[in-house]
Amino acid sequence: MISNEINKNMQNSSWIRKMFEEGERLAKIHGKENIYDYSIGNPFAEPPIEVINSLIKHSSEKGVHRYMSNAGFLDVRKTMANEINKNIIDKKLSYEHVVMTCGAAGALNTVLRAILNPGEEVIVFTPYFVEYGFYIQNHNGIMVTINNEKTNFQPNLDELKKKITKKTKAIIINSPNNPTGVVYKENILKEMSLVIKEKEEEFNSKIFIISDEPYSKIVYNNIKIPNILNIFENGIIVNSFSKSLGLAGERIGYIAVNPKIENVSILMNALIFCNRTLGFGNAPALAQKAVADGINSSVNIADYQEKRDFLYDNLTRLGFTMVNPEGTFYLFPKSPIKNDIEFVKFATKYNILLVPGSGFGCPGYFRMSYCVDFNMIKRSISAFEKMAKDLNL
Ligand code: PLP
């Protein structure tokens, strides 16, 4: 009845779903408060009050609920452009280079639809957000993976050099990264831009850098995320407010394109056309107004940092090893059992729910999502202690 491809994809993409179902099963046996669920990256924080107030205020505004330009409200696009411009050296980005979208997911699909011809390649770095594979496939592209350095999870440029071909149309980068929490270093991104330039000359091609940045505001110790439009001439930012404003259910984000891209207006027209014809039409009207009003606010980042510190300190004390992440709300420790899938199954014996690194194209690790109640995190430590003891860590 359904497409063979979708049937296959559904069977291969169910790790988080499987964990969710396992959690439901365990909760019935042991009680919900005794299950330590680190499987889902669903933002725990509520949206800031100015965002809630904006939603209420604009809901009764005349005309706000009508069809609009497929790129979104002009005033909202201007607000986004001003915000992005703050970190761009030449400040040339205008509303004309911004399209409001249905989250980062909608933005990624719109970009890929606009640029890909069938069979063209899109490079991603492992571990990667598992949906990339499906989005690339949606638009008849081929995903090419590059294994990042395991010591720090920074992009592996030696492998990048080898894997760029004449068919490479785009490279997706994701920093701060899901699932590692790592922030890509500016010097490595600059080096990456040189590698890409060299390859573009070799193949007489144009390669887009799609920078997927839904966690750009969730960074710790005030570290600064480099603006990729200062680094990559063919850079396209994809961002969303799902995490930074706790608005995942409202489906709101944007695409911002480097004004320096050759024939940028053709690209913009294609993006606006694809935002429409993929069936999004436009980004949700009320949510657009709310994120423009909330542009200077964010969820409580200190709260996430406190959880990261608590978990990192406790897990390393117990013998787990991991890179200490500079952002997001994920940890990506090494699996203490070689087979990460076996380990994740083993952890359920202690009522701990995790996601295997294999689900992100990176076996031998596991992901913990700590956008959860702090009380649950605190309660879970004794379960981790028991497990670490049984594993002789
Ligand atoms: N990209 C990454 C790396 C993500 O982790 C997510 C969501 O978890 C998305 C994109 C999709 O975000 P959105 O809710 O804005 O569509």
UniProtKB/TrEMBL annotation:
Q: Does the keyword Ligase apply?
A: no
Enzyme Commission number(s) of this protein: 2.6.1.-
Superkingdom field: Bacteria
Enzyme type, top EC level: transferase
Q: Which key words are in the record?
A: Aminotransferase, Transferase
Query: Which coenzymes or cofactors are required?
Result: pyridoxal 5'-phosphate
* InterPro entries reported in the protein's UniProt record: Aminotransferase_I/II_large, NHTrfase_class1_PyrdxlP-BS, PyrdxlP-dep_Trfase, PyrdxlP-dep_Trfase_major, PyrdxlP-dep_Trfase_small
Q: Is Transferase tagged as a keyword?
A: yes
State one molecular function term (GO).
pyridoxal phosphate binding
Q: Which residues form the Aminotransferase class I/classII large domain?
A: 39-382
Q: Which Pfam families match?
A: Aminotran_1_2 (PF00155)
Q: Which family does it belong to?
A: Belongs to the class-I pyridoxal-phosphate-dependent aminotransferase family.
- Can you say what this protein is called? Aminotransferase
